[in-house]
Design goal:
378 residues; mainly alpha; elongated; 62% helix; four-stranded mixed sheet
Length: 378
């Protein structure tokens, strides 16, 4: 495992959404060549002869990251947008990184190294393969895809930090890009900026930030600062064992901090969907013999509460088996939008419930496997 993989943000995990690697066919390779041709005709390729300072920054980045340079770098004339982006085809062994003239003029060479490292990370971690929030089938799928997108930015920021060689270069770059201002207008008092997070914590209003693909610049400044204090960073990059917390603990803190701004809608919605799937999955196990026995009702009440049990009993009195079966399929289809870890939790909770009721164990195990197939676990 490379150093970059070791420092990856743990919530930046595409396996939670079964992101698959596409096969690059000849048509896509042709598209890549066409895109490169467009860049070569509309932008200027960075070279030592034309842009010696930028070329030196590129060399510095790859020396620090200790990975092979498989990239072509360009500058495009754009004095309106402070932007950089990585362009690559899935499974491609190379990529193009484009900087706007505005971002080059705004940042110092050291700060640009953070930006270069950040964009390189998107290619290294193959973030372009992640689910597109705009193609989501429902809101919960969209919110989970956006959550993964924000997690990808945290990983990329860390690589940008390593590429820049100093925390201060990275934080200055983030604040300049967020404000659009040069350093003659800014006092780089990072703790003062983070006071805005405390103000946000005191507000209970919903935020549109949950629909953003990137975390707030406040979260990013805080996340990089905490990362620099982790035991793993201190050990790998400073040869010291002075970190305050493990990287896993830091990642959990960052995740909670991001929720301060995005709100709890995703967390609450995921839990509601999980709980529904568990309850209807447990009911399905109870009804395998077509009887909701007193013993099963008692366990159902213990697990889900008396109100849920009474609602189910009322429903069973007026429903036919096809309606109940339809509800189960509906709620498990809904649960397909959940992260894989939550889908595993659904199955584990149903198994735990099944262990406390009477029934044909072989049949129960077989039906639990069928429920797994309704998810994405088989």
């Amino acid at each position: 495992m490379s150093v970059l993989d070791q420092i990856r943000y743990k919530y930046d995990d595409p396996k939670e959404f079964t992101s698959t690697i596409e096969i690059v066919d000849k048509e896509k390779l042709s598209l890549k060549e066409s895109h490169l041709k467009t860049l070569l005709s509309s932008s200027i390729q960075i070279s030592k002869e034309l842009f010696p300072t930028l070329a030196e920054s590129v060399d510095n980045v790859f020396q620090r990251l200790k990975i092979e340079n498989k990239f072509t770098f360009f500058i495009t004339a754009n004095h309106m947008e402070t932007q950089a982006y990585c362009s690559s085809m899935p499974q491609s062994d190379s990529a193009e990184i484009v900087l706007t003239s505005k971002i080059v003029e705004l940042l110092t060479a050291n700060e640009l190294e953070y930006v270069l490292g950040h964009e390189i990370a998107h290619f290294y971690f193959q973030h372009s393969l992640y689910p597109n929030p705009n193609e989501a089938k429902n809101r919960i799928q969209q919110l989970n895809a956006l959550d993964l997108s924000r997690a990808a930015e945290i990983s990329s920021d860390r690589v940008g930090f390593i590429a820049a060689g100093h925390l201060d270069h990275s934080l200055r770059a983030i604040l300049k890009i967020a404000s659009g201002l040069g350093e003659k207008h800014i006092q780089f008092d990072y703790e003062k900026y983070l006071d805005q997070l405390k103000q946000i914590e005191s507000m209970n209003t919903r935020s549109g930030e949950i629909l953003n693909t990137h975390p707030s610049f406040l979260n990013r400044v805080q996340a990089l600062t905490w990362f620099s204090e982790s035991k793993e960073y201190q050990k790998i990059f400073t040869d010291k064992n002075q970190g305050k917390h493990s990287l896993s603990t830091i990642d959990d803190k960052i995740n909670e901090s991001i929720k301060t701004i995005t709100g709890k809608e995703l967390e609450v919605s995921n839990k509601e969907i999980l709980d529904r799937a568990v309850m209807w999955g447990a009911l399905h196990i109870c009804l395998l013999d077509k009887v909701f026995s007193k013993q099963e009702q008692a366990k159902f009440t213990e697990k889900f509460g008396d109100k849920a049990k009474m609602s189910i009993i009322s429903l069973l009195k007026i429903s036919n088996p096809a309606l109940v079966s339809g509800r189960i399929k509906e709620y498990f289809a809904e649960a397909n939008s959940l992260p894989i870890r939550d889908q595993h939790k659904i199955v584990e909770e149903i198994k735990s419930f099944a262990n406390h009721i009477n029934g044909n164990q072989e049949q129960i195990n077989s039906e639990i496997q069928n429920l797994e197939k309704l998810l994405r676990l088989k």
